[in-house]
What we know:
The complex is a heterotrimer of chains A (566), B (439) and C (133). Chain A has 566 residues and is an alpha/beta fold. Helix content of chain A is 31%, strand content 21%. Chain A has two domains: 3-51 and 464-508, Urease, subunit C, domain 1 (Roll), CATH 2.30.40; 54-68 and 117-451, TIM Barrel, CATH 3.20.20. In chain A, a hairpin with a 2-residue loop joins strand 21 (500-504) and strand 22. Chain B has a nine-stranded mixed β-sheet with strand order 5-4-20-19-18-6-7-16-17. In chain B, strands 11-10-9-14-15 form a five-stranded parallel β-sheet. The mean pLDDT of chain B is 96. Chain B is of the alpha/beta class. Chain C has one domain (4-130): Barwin-like endoglucanases (Beta Barrel). Chain C has helices at residues 14-21, 27-33, 40-46, 85-88, 121-130, and strands at residues 4-11, 35-38, 52-58, 61-69, 78-82, 104-112. Chain C has a six-stranded mixed β-sheet with strand order 2-4-3-6-1-5. In chain C, strand 3 (52-58) and strand 4 (61-69) form a beta hairpin. In chain C, helix 1 (14-21) runs antiparallel to helix 2 (27-33). Chain C is globular. The two termini of chain C are 26 Å apart. Strand 16 (336-340) of chain A pairs parallel with strand 8 (135-139) of chain B. Chain C: One of its GO terms (molecular function) is molybdopterin cofactor binding. Chain C: Residues 7-107 form the Molybdopterin dinucleotide-binding domain. Chain C: This is Molybdopterin dinucleotide-binding protein. Chain C: InterPro entries: Asp_de-COase-like_dom_sf, Formylmethanofuran_DH_dsu, MoPterin_dinucl-bd_dom. Chain C: It comes from Methanospirillum stamsii.
Amino acid sequence: MSEYIIKNGKVYDPKTGIKGDVADVCIKDGKIADKVSSKAKVIDAKGKTVMAGAVDIHAHVAGPKVNEGRNYRPEDKLFTYKPTGKNTRMSGGFSIPTTFKTGYEYARMGYTTVMEAAMPPLYARHVHEEIKDTPIIDEGALPVFGNNWFVFEYLKNNEMDNVCAYIAWLLKTTKGYGIKIVNPGGSEAWGWGENCTTVDDPVPYFDITPAEIVKGLLTANEQLGLPHSIHIHSNNLGNPGNYETTLATLKIAEGVKAKNKFGREQVLHHTHVQFHSYGGDSWVNFESKAKEVAEYFNKNKNMTMDLGCVTLDETTTMTADGPFEHHLTSLNHLKWANVDVELETSSGIVPYVYDPNIKVCAIQWAIGLELGLYAKDPLRTFITTDHPNAGPFTRYPRVIKWLMSDKSRQEMLKGFKHSEKVIAATNLASLDRELSMFEIVQMTRAGPAKALGLENVFGGLAPGMDADVVVYNLNEDKIKNPEEIETAFSAADCVFKSGTMVVENREVISNGNKRTLWVDAKVPENKQVERDVQMKFLKFYSMTINNYEVSNHYVPNPYVIEVDSN
Amino acid sequence: MSKTVTDVICPFCGTLCDDLVVVTDDEGKKILSVENACAIGAEKFLHSSDHSHRVTRPRKLQEDGSFKEITYEEAIEYTAQMLVNAKKPSMYGWSSTNCESQSVGHEIAELCGALVDNTAAVCHGTTLVAVQNVGIPSCTLGEVKNRADRIIFWGSNPAHGHPRHMSRYSIFPRGYFTGKGQKQRKIIVVDPRCTDTSSLADVHLQVEQGYDYELLQALRAAVRGQELTGDIIAGVPKEKVYEAAEMLKSGRFGVIFFGMGVTQSLGKDHNIDAAIMLTKDLNDYTKFSIIAMRGHYNVTGSGQVLGWQFGFPYSVDLSRGFARYNPGETGTIEVLKRKEIDAMFVLGSDPGAHFPMQCVKEISKLPSVAIDPHITPTTSICKVHVPVAFVGVEVGGNCYRMDNVPIESRKVVEPPEGMLTDQQFLEGVLKRVRELKAN
Amino acid sequence: MSTITINLISGRTIQQGVSMEGGKETDKYMKACGIIEIDESDFKRLGIMKNTNVKVKSQHGEVIVKAIEATQGPHPGVAFIPMGPWANSVTSPETYSTGMPTFKGVPITIEPADREKVLNSIELVRSKCWGDE
């Protein structure tokens, strides 16, 4: 493999503690190295910014929902298509780009690892087919557990070993990465057209509450010692006043210590917190509770969050929270797709136009940024747009700009049609904090890598780590106009993925050598779970057990993380 | 001695049964018996295993109408040359093959600026358009089995088209919340004919052929409690419409399955718009889903792979160097009628039998290749016929069921010696196309 | 004997499926699909015996098939030909800008043609494409 030396760039790396000092970064055999030979190709990064490849902890980029979104929104392709290139397939789409575009655009922005946020186990093979067709970036996928009948029954009977054995089996069977929980209990209730909007609403028939589900899965996650913590989208998403449900959910994890060998410190990751930080009791008095939620996170160091920033675009919402999407279609009257999945989950899709002229949308925009600005620990606060729910991932550079520049935020606030009402319902106008480049690196590299249990592999520039390195044409000390930030982060000067140069001069030059991350947790043999699985497939699934597992050839280049949970 | 393969996937219809048991001879060459399959599925396995009447090498059409055997290499060369030299080739079919082959085919299409279309063009294409119009509240077939107490078959006759659908998922099975099976369910069938499916129904609405839209909108009105005018609506007495509306609303979990009766009749996508909106309306009262009765076992998969690679589910025109989609214009039927394409590549479908004859005649005038294990009307009028191994019998690969659930099909027996699979043939064409394009 | 006008639909039957998988070149396929199912009352109008060959004509073409009694009836005024090249000799290629031909709801006439032969699928399609028509 080639050797490279990236010379004289301003390097930012929380892993090694470099905060913008001029330094060289060496790449050898796909890894970061101490030094390279004289044959190494030299990249001159003078006056530019150098950091590790970014890690996206939560995006909907592959699988049945995403593809239904693509197929049912031909309009999303308008004016977006790029023809076939020398090294690239033709690619298009805006909020739900094709798999090729997904890979290329992430890479161009300097993102090299992405976690698909919700994999319905029954559709796992589809998720992996798409991941396989997404070039360059390493990806994993989180199977959903929060509405799974096996989990309900074992938890209700307080059979923690069985929960663990089932989780381990499902991760292996679906080639999944960790435990995703979406609207615990509520998505099952949606099977009957109902919902759970607080942590204490019992799930119809199953006689278990969302709080019990979260607590149980959290306990199982730590008992198994998985690299990632439970990854939760709590109940009551998107509704005025829901911050109380959010805080009630977070409380479940209070004081619990993480147990794992991957350097992960949190026991709960709450995703797209923007959608869960709403006050008021109607759309009329709808207001930000970002401060309350962020302060809770600041105090409780065993939790992480990602923002889910609204970018004020026309986009496509999609979630395993089926009842929410039904609620949304009744609000905006746009086309509604829904898929309930036997024994496992529900899901829905609705296009959405976040219009800056609509008060609620502008308030949502402010809440996402407030969360990022109130957060005291950037290593526990990650930038996302819950792609494509609050906006497409291709807007990350814009979100970074807003977080780094008070000026750009104030201009936005002033420009809104309902500017005064938005300012009154939020705190953003008074928040003049501007995140530093180092903090942005913590929020997009070191932080999410650590939360995923991958701090020794991704998101840093210590020797021995994977050589995912990005050079941006930007100098933090010389930014005159906030637009420079967005421009620079939109397309890197060059990007290395595992030591291969995949982007040069802002364009994709190689399809890299993408890998699929999954977790193989070893647990003691468990005959009861084996029998239960056999029985449920025989009686209630529409597929036989022997056709359920995702075969290895759908994961042609795996990166398996083994966990000994015996 | 014999060998038994279990959990075999049936590569016939969109029901994609995955519980077949196939017994083969000891060498895994001949299929001796097939259990659990419907009559059609069993015939597919048994017929493929009888090699005596199979064409096992490519063949080229001669002036006198006869065929002359050629090698696979010659067939690859002909196909690659045809696609590279055409200005706007059509690559049609993709529904009776696996996703892996579709993916290779798409790469060829991208390089050659082809029009890629699957059999939705003459099947559920209008459904896909309707979903783009109004969305689709749906669920997996296991949800139906476990929860549904109201089942509607609209313009669909599963007793004939999807023979095991009713026993596996919809009418008869006992699921988690449906322990009494059929007794717990009310069945409504909407069909202009009395069919073998309607004979199982609690209510048969014998709609006047072509008036589905009217009946659907009448049901929507009735569900909302609005007054209907006229005694007979779309051939159905008004009282029966009210009765059906009440039956739909009073259920706990309902599903509408619909087929060609609505997609191909006048009104087309508008019929399905109305059916989907009825489903959406019903969610204000109870839980309701709607599922298309997809035909070919992997037509759904073709839509999926096209979706993630190009963003559109069928009728994708790549001839301008980027993907365009407008089924009324880029659909295969339309481009044939307009004589707009100058080469025809068919794989995993038989347009010769299933297109209106005017379009079949157009195909017969073009440079053409048909990839198909069977002898079909298409292979009989194409310039080159390339027989291949049967997907789901002689080679595995991924397929998508009508509810979009992916299931990997299995290889049960060896193909006749020396035969290529779809994927192998396509990979040969792709390699050759790349070489030709490089020059 | 007379010519009648009737509404044609096409669609699947289990015999169509089985015989198709058994080989479209076979007589079995022709027997399963080279037919038209019509109602008792329509036979009376037509004035022929069941299982007689008839000529089916539409604006889009014509074909010889065997008239049999409706297997899934009654459906007076509606005729049924299983999906296949016989049906498609007369179905409408009109898509009304949807891309979907009109396989169901095609006005046709049926007239007795007891001396004419039903072709098998290969002969039929080849004669349509390359015959004298």
